């Protein structure tokens, strides 16, 4: 019998946005905008709870085609306008807790570079 190990997967995305670092930062914390980062919509979203303080938790529950999808996590680091580090987990899919880091940097007035880094466990 073969023993297969889980594998760490890392994804990094860099995006330029026509906004300030502060506005981009708050888009990740405001419940009305937060649902867009997690590919949910007002039509399918059932629950959105958010306590955006270090150690605070968030929960997003979506219902699509009769299937409940829950995303939960904890905020580890919050530096206003600069950085968000949080955990992310989808309990229905995996017991593993992954991590998201988002950095915001002004490239020119009104232009922000957002760097999104995801590190997660891929079960085998």
TrEMBL record:
InterPro entries, alphabetized: ASHA1/2-like_C (IPR013538), START-like_dom_sf (IPR023393)
The organism's place on the tree of life at top rank: Bacteria
Domain Activator of Hsp90 ATPase homologue 1/2-like C-terminal: 19-120
Alphabetized Pfam families for the sequence: AHSA1
Family: Belongs to the AHA1 family.
Name of this protein: Activator of Hsp90 ATPase homologue 1/2-like C-terminal domain-containing protein
Organism (species): Staphylococcus pseudintermedius
